[in-house]
Amino acid sequence: MTAAGTNLPVMKTDDVPPDVPPASLNPEKDPDEWVTKDEPMTGPQRSYLQTLCREAAEEFNENWTKAEASKKIDELQQKTGRGKNDTADT
């Protein structure tokens, strides 16, 4: 099976060796290493941060960069219990 418009095979879950940790398949890059780290935060970051700041009773900073916003999201997810480890939505 190949991806539409390419000659590249589409990987299925079964194609991944069982000893490969999931994080290594899509490793997260440190926001400080992003090429776009100093650009203004994105619209989705802004919206989510406004929600997280409200829930955490913290001040929202309109001037956070993409990298700062990403780090603040991680911090506030921990504080509010939202985010990556939130299994209530699944």
The total of beta strands comes to 0
Q: N-to-C SSE series? A: HHH
Strand content: under 5%
Major pleated sheet: none
Question: Helix/strand-derived class?
Answer: mainly alpha
Distance between the termini: 29 Å
Which percent range fits the helix content?
A: 25-40%
Shape: extended
Average pLDDT for all residues: 79
| Radius of gyration from the alpha-carbon trace, in angstroms | 17 Å
Spans of at least 5 consecutive residues with low confidence: none
By DSSP (H or I, 4+ residues per run), the number of helices equals: 3
What is the compact description of this entry?
The chain is 37% helix and 0% strand.
Features:
mainly alpha, 0% strand
Outline the structure in words.
It is a single chain. The protein has a domain of 45 residues. Helix 2 packs parallel to helix 3. The mean pLDDT is 79. The chain is 37% helix and 0% strand. The protein contains three helices and no strands. It is extended and about 50 Å long. It is an all-alpha fold.
Q: What is the fold's blueprint, element by element?
A:
Layout: H1 22-25, H2 43-56, H3 66-80
Helix pairs in contact: 2-3
